[in-house]
């Protein structure tokens, strides 16, 4: 991925920084747009994955909608080219201020996650003299086979409502005159690589659709969420996610009723592979039984390994050594959890070498903090 010209450019820049390969981002978006048009699907980009302004402007230029989980994400989406009538607002804890912001901006739909939220939206919509379109987020109780922290569609998760609650919700909706029920919403988890899980989701959505039909409720919008995983171990082998198989499953197994529109909320699979965190080796420290490559980037810059025990491929992109050694690749933060990889095989590494932490375009820059008052990483966007 990194040719000599690019590496020489990196050497002139202050580390750490996030590098984004815009050419790859454009190829990924072109693929998503091609398939969405083929199947007449509606794709919303999940801003929580990466909300870099330049990245968002590129994504919105392809006509995607926006999936937001805060009022500020709604405002950011609108400011970077996304159309209000293509914005959905999800999240289990929407504040009154956030709901009012979304109502004022006339967004397409609220994905509602509790009975109480529906009641609050109705009250605020009445005060705003607006009609709020909503989709009910339902837990399909489908296994996602992913990390426990990013599984979101089981009955014991905090997200969404369970089928047993729907009768009560429908009773409340009968008296909620400032709310219009337009659809149902699902999201079973993130970084899902076993596509069989999405087939199971389709079967469950079909069953739930029939339940609504039995209640004489016509739904126009079916939102199946996102969650398509990427190849963190071999990013160059699969630098564009398997959108062909993913969309094909929903086209084949989801029973779509007349005039219904199918929506997706994709984040990681669009932006993750185009981003890398570039960091410099400060020291190579020899312990009793291992060596530590200490970088100038830490968990304040990329928290995923500390938070999720997530794997990222780590490369020394400047070493010219033909010999290899094993290192724990760690950061400078005063926490034992501050590491990017343990027992990582690298070419012989020394102070000043540049390290690339791959597949960092999603949940990297967007989750940065100033913990330890460390400077946050800048972003570098190049079409090389």
Automatic annotation (TrEMBL):
Pathway: Amino-acid biosynthesis; L-lysine biosynthesis via DAP pathway; L-lysine from DL-2,6-diaminopimelate: step 1/1. Its EC number is 4.1.1.20. It holds the Pfam family Orn_DAP_Arg_deC. Residues 31-272 form the Orn/DAP/Arg decarboxylase 2 N-terminal domain. Substrate binds at residues 268, 304, 308, 335, 363. It is an enzyme of class 4 (lyase). Keywords: Amino-acid biosynthesis, Decarboxylase, Lyase, Lysine biosynthesis, Pyridoxal phosphate. Its cofactor is pyridoxal 5'-phosphate. Residues 17-361 form the Orn/DAP/Arg decarboxylase 2 C-terminal domain. It catalyses: meso-2,6-diaminopimelate + H(+) = L-lysine + CO2. Homodimer. HAMAP family: LysA. This is Diaminopimelate decarboxylase. It comes from Thermoflexibacter ruber.
């Amino acid at each position: 991925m990194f040719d000599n010209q690019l590496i020489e450019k990196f050497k002139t820049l202050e580390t750490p920084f996030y590098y984004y390969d815009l050419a790859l981002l454009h190829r990924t978006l072109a693929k998503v747009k091609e398939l969405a048009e083929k199947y007449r699907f509606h794709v919303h980009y999940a801003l929580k994955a990466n909300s870099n302004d330049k990245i968002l402007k590129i994504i919105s230029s392809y006509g995607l909608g926006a999936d937001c989980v805060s009022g500020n994400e709604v405002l950011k989406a609108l400011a970077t080219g996304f159309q209000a009538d293509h914005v959905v607002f999800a999240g289990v804890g929407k504040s009154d201020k956030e709901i009012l912001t979304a109502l004022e901006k006339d967004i397409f739909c609220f994905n509602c996650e509790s009975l109480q939220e529906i009641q609050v939206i109705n009250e605020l919509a009445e005060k705003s003299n607006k009609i709020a379109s909503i989709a009910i987020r339902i837990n399909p109780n489908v296994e996602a086979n992913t990390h426990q922290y990013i599984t979101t569609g089981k009955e014991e998760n905090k997200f969404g409502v369970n089928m047993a609650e729907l009768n009560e919700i429908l009773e409340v909706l009968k008296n909620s005159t400032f709310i219009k029920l337009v659809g149902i919403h699902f999201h079973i988890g993130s970084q899902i690589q076993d596509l069989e899980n999405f087939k199971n989701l389709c079967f469950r959505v079909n069953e739930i659709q029939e339940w609504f039909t039995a209640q004489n409720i016509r739904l126009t919008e079916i939102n199946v969420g996102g969650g398509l995983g990427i190849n963190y171990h071999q990013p160059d082998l699969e630098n564009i996610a398997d959108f062909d198989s993913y969309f094909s499953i929903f086209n084949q197994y989801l029973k779509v009723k007349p005039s219904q529109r199918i929506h997706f909320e994709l984040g990681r699979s669009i932006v993750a592979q185009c981003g890398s965190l570039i960091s410099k080796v400060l020291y190579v420290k020899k312990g009793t039984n291992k060596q530590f490559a200490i970088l100038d980037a830490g968990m304040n810059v990329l928290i995923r390994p500390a938070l999720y025990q997530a794997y990222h491929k780590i490369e020394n992109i400047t070493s010219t050594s033909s010999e290899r050694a094993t290192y724990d690749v760690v950061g400078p933060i005063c926490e034992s959890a501050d590491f990017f990889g343990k027992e990582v095989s690298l070419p012989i590494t020394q102070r000043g070498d540049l390290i690339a932490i791959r597949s960092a375009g999603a949940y990297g820059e967007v989750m940065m903090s100033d913990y330890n008052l460390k400077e946050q990483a800048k972003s570098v966007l190049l079409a090389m």
